[in-house]
C-alpha cells in the first residue's frame, strides 16, 4: 500500500481484482470458443459457386448458403435468402449470369431464422413459399404468399419442388426436393469426414424431434432413393447421394 495526500490506497487488492477480471474474461472467451467449435468446428466447407447438379448453384453468404435454381429462361428460384440484408453475394451471383433481382421468381424458405430471410425484400416480384406452421416465425421478414403443407408440390416455370415437413430445428422447418437435390436448411449438416449430422442442438427448438423427423424422412424417401443425387445444407458443404441420410437414420 502507499499514501497520497494522506489517503491510504490499497494497490494490491486492486491488482488482484484486475487479475481475476482478466481471468474471467479469458474463461468466457474459451467457453465461447468451445461452444462455437462444438457447433461448427466439424462442418465441411461451403464452396461458393459450386454446381451441385446442372441448374443448381451454391452461393456462399458468409456462414450460410443460398441455392439458386434454374426455373426457365432468365428465371430462377432461391432456396432461402441469406444472412446479408444487402444481398451482395446473391446479387453478384445473379449478375454473373446476366440476371437481376427481377429474375427471382420464387423463394423457398427452409425456416424463419434471420440468417435465411435477410434479403427476401430485395426480390419483391418473387413468390414466397414456406410451411404454414413457420409463417409466424418468419414474421415481417417477408409475406409468405404460398403457405405449404407437408407433401405439397409446387411448380415455378419448369422447376418442380416437393415439400417435406421436418419439425425440430424449428416447428415449421422444411426440406425441399428439386432437381434431385434435397435441401435441408439447418435441419442437418455434413461433417468433414462425409457423414450427415443432425441440427445443431444449441440453435434448435427440439433436437430430439429433429432426429425423429430426419429418420421419418429417410424411411419415406427410401423407395425413391435413386432419384436423390445430392444432399444440400445451409451451413456446410453437400453430400453425394441418398446413402448419408440412410446411414444417419440407421445409426440414430
SSE topology:
Layout (H helix, E strand, L loop, with lengths): L1 E3 L2 E3 L1 H30 L10 E3 L2 E6 L2 E7 L5 E4 L8 H9 L7 E5 L5 H4 L9 E5 L3 H4 L7 E3 L4 E4 L2 E7 L8 E5 L2 E3 L4 E3 L5 E3 L8 H15 L8 E3 L6 E2 L2 H9 L1
Parallel strand pairs: 6-7, 7-8, 8-9, 13-16
Antiparallel strand pairs: 1-2, 3-4, 4-5, 5-6, 10-11, 11-12, 12-13, 14-15, 16-17
Helix pairs in contact: 5-6
Structure in words:
This protein has a single domain (45-251), classed as 4-Layer Sandwich (Metallo-beta-lactamase, Chain A). The chain contains 6 helices and 17 strands. The chain has helices at residues 11-40, 88-96, 114-117, 135-138, 207-221, 243-251, and strands spanning 2-4, 7-9, 51-53, 56-61, 64-70, 76-79, 104-108, 127-131, 146-148, 153-156, 159-165, 174-178, 181-183, 188-190, 196-198, 230-232, 239-240. The strands form 4 sheets. The chain has a 7-stranded mixed β-sheet with strand order 3-4-5-6-7-8-9, with helices on one face. A 6-stranded mixed β-sheet has the order 10-11-12-13-16-17, covered by helices on one side. A hairpin with a 2-residue loop joins strand 3 (51-53) and strand 4 (56-61). Helix 5 (207-221) crosses helix 6. The protein is globular. Mean pLDDT is 90; it is low at 29-35.
